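Hi V.,

You were right to ask for the full record rather than a summary. Here it is.
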Amino acid sequence: MTGGRLGTAGGPLADRGADRIADRGAGRADREIMRKAVLRLSDRLPDLADRLTAEILSGDGGADRDEEFSRDVWEMCHTGLGHGFETILEPGRGRADLEWAQRLGQRRAHQGQPLDQLLRSYRLAGKVFWEAVVEVVDRHDPENVPALIRQATRTWDTIDQQSGAAAASYHRTELALARRSEERVHAIVDALLDGQGADGGLLSTATSVLGLPATGRYAVVMLGAESGFGDGVERRPGDTAGMRFIWRLRTDAQVALVALGAAELDDLVDAVRPYARSHAGVSPVVDSLAELGGARWFAELALRTCRGPGNQIARLDRRLPDALVLSQPRLAGRLGHVALGGLADVDPAFRDVLLTTLGTWLACDGSAARAADRLFCHRNTVLNRLRKIEQLTGRTLARPGDLVELVLALSALRLHGTGPGNGAGPRNDEGPPVRGGNGRPGRRS
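Predicted structure:
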């Protein structure tokens, strides 16, 4: 082998080095051509802004836009093109064009302009700018027009950078606005559910922000915090069957304001059931946003009537006796002691047997035979226990008034734990939400 080294005169490395030097020289020459063209265009900046504004408005329904909007678009075009010129003429001063793109993306997001329109304006800006550059070079330095081909890629890369910066800023601003909007929606829904709907100012704001009419068919759904939702992809029901759900997570429950539309409460129950792990309460239908405070209280009462395992979904209108007992805890406690007080001195185990028998007989619609089947005893045993209850309480099950008292007393015992042998009274912190003297929701005393 001969001993010539790569990189010596005439070798491959020398050739590549020469090519790089030539490329750098051509690059500097091309950039100078572009710089001279932009320098000549600087005096025509207002005209270019006019041309770009016309292009943008022609595809954005510009004929229907007012003069103020058109002026805003012109200012955007004039400023944006100016920053682009500055970046080419004074590259050492940084990227003012990208800073402007970020501000513009933020501004357009605040104005609610679609992102597609913003990106379209950048594409049109690139088109108008490039046509102007080719035009001015062809007029003053026609021999340099072929050199512009090498600058085309650089120009469109710059447009891509600018539109990318605008889009990223737009998305950031849009997300921040959505978060603020969501917080506002939550605050309004909370106020409505807390019973402040009688406030005319709040009601007007609610209809605007929530997009719901002041009068309409509404209901409230409440799930206890211990129940939550299933583990599916959708963890709680969304808008379905013409119903719109707005959910709120509170410390002790998950609550939804539901705009029913034409749907019925059965449709609402069907929508909630697949997602509920445990119990839920459903209010009656109310006819306005102002009534949602009462509806929330009704849903809470319905939920509190649920006891034991399973996933009962209780509609208040089907649990009214229990709801009545829950809504009047002091009176319910008194009723339990008075109606069932005769059982206080009975052996606790036998008292439980008697109360279980009475509850089962009531659940079987007053049939001793069916109650006996459930209790695994003879029909006569059931009848004997019922007569014992009548003897101890002084009530007669065949008398409607006495029967109502015993039914409500059993509910008080089940829901409040008040009755014979239990001296603890119920809490007295229940009641529909009302506006306090300071304008905030309070409780009835």
